[in-house]
Amino acid sequence: MPEAKIAPSILAGDFANLEAECKRMMKCGSDWLHIDIMDGHFVPNLTIGAPVVTCIRGKLPKGESFFDCHMMVSDPERWVDDFAKAGGDLYCFHYEATTEHEALIDKIHAAGMRAGCAIKPKTPAAVVFDLVPKLDMVLVMTVEPGFGGQKFMKDCMPKVEELRSKFPDLDIEVDGGLSMDTIDIAADAGANVIVAGTGVFKAKDPKEAIAALRAAVNKRQLK
Length: 223
Ligand SMILES: O=C(CO)[C@@H](O)[C@H](O)COP(=O)(O)O
Known about the structure:
By secondary structure, the chain is of the alpha/beta class. It has a single domain (5-222), classed as Aldolase class I (TIM Barrel, Alpha-Beta Barrel), CATH 3.20.20.70. The protein has eight helices and eight strands. The protein has helices spanning 18-27, 50-59, 80-86, 101-110, 157-166, 183-189, 198-201, 206-222; strands at residues 5-8, 32-38, 66-72, 90-94, 114-119, 137-141, 171-175, 193-196. It has an eight-stranded parallel sheet with strand order 1-8-7-6-5-4-3-2. The longest helix has 17 residues, at 206-222. It is globular, with a radius of gyration of 16 Å. The termini are close together. 5-O-phosphono-D-xylulose binds at residues 9, 11-12, 34, 36, 70, 143, 145-150, 175-178, 195-199.
């Protein structure tokens, strides 16, 4: 299983102070920054677009901070070049948002980013099996995408188990409701990239929370 990566979701941060919030998470030991892009169409919520990501990238140099862009958008092909220019490192589109998966992955790679594919809770893991050889990551959503602060859906774990047993070296990300209460279930299933918004930003000590999430994934790797 690849190494643990903890990716705080800045959706749970203070959007009026994004630079400070991102730097705070990096100082607290986060590996990646998870950036939730919502278009009000693919999901019933609106967040930020490439201009905001460009501004954050201006304050956090590439190479020192990894931007994991979760594209909850219809027509994900449309934004690839903008997010590459904005300084995105990983462009994770939703399987449900396109029919041209392979072409999109090629486009993301050609733009210089890693490619991820996310699946919603009701989408079976098998839809991505044939894409995995081309992908850098699969994201198994553990809530319906659209909002932070929702309850972790444990019944998505068989999909993580299925993916981990077929693809031991794949980065498998989980996102939604991850905290110290739920991390062991996700880590035992085989997830190694952990997105946590509320669980980190609202923790009494975010540094401790990040370290504890990482320790839970590492503990599973030793089993
Ligand atoms: O993509 C999403 C929601 O659609 C997530 O990234 C959430 O923003 C995670 O927030 P918490 O559930 O950890 O508060």
